[in-house]
Design goal:
The chain is mainly α. It has a single domain, classed as Tetracycline Repressor, domain 2. Helices cover 76% and strands 0% of the residues. The longest helix has 23 residues. It is globular, with a radius of gyration of 18 Å.
């Protein structure tokens, strides 16, 4: 995503929090403007409609995830270490920025996730596919389609985050076992 103005980021971050708290329908432009401490007209300077703002928010969240994760990836490390770094960095990011994962879940299960959006270039998806392709090409991962490997890993990360966020009481009683999940996932995708 290109450099965007701080006011636009402020609006997007406000919309992100409001959508996390109230869902898409409970997030009118007037409320976004109020939460962002800007005039409603300012929101329309950046977005023609609420729908356009939500599409842009989707791109923004995915670009922020990509930025955070790719900056922390060290291609000089062996692939197994990179995998665990990816796992730890992604789970940490989603726990720190709960609104990211909440928004992505709402978006993907909504009518906003239409064919046009699904066919749009996805830099985060391309990065994860290239990441897992490196693992396959280096002989560290099973010779599977990198998209399948990515789905398996990302699905496991998302399930773990959901459990930690939405089932805090159960998380406390399961904490000693939750740390085993990344190793189990690695054991499932590594080349035997």
């Amino acid at each position: 995503m290109d450099q965007i103005s701080s006011k636009k980021v402020q609006i997007l971050e406000s919309a992100l929090e409001l959508i996390r708290e109230n869902g898409f329908h409970g997030c009118p432009i007037s409320q976004v403007a109020k939460h962002a401490s800007v005039a409603a007209g300012s929101v329309y300077t950046y977005f023609e409609s609420k729908d356009e703002m939500i599409f842009e928010l989707y791109r923004y969240v995915k670009s922020e995830v990509l930025r955070e994760i790719s900056e922390k990836d060290d291609p000089k490390k062996n692939f197994e270490a990179r995998f665990f770094d990816l796992w730890n960095n992604l789970t940490s990011l989603y726990q720190e920025r709960v609104a990211f994962q909440s928004f992505l879940e709402q978006f993907t299960s909504s009518p906003y996730n239409n064919e046009t959006m699904q066919l749009e270039t996805d830099p985060w998806g391309r990065w994860t596919e290239a990441f897992f392709n490196e693992g396959v090409e280096s002989g560290q991962l099973r010779p599977l389609n990198p998209k399948i490997l990515s789905m398996m890993v990302m699905g496991s990360v998302i399930s773990l985050i959901r459990f930690k966020i939405y089932f805090k009481t159960k998380t406390a009683t399961s904490a000693q076992d939750l740390h085993l999940i990344p190793q189990m996932v690695w054991d499932g995708i590594k080349f035997q």
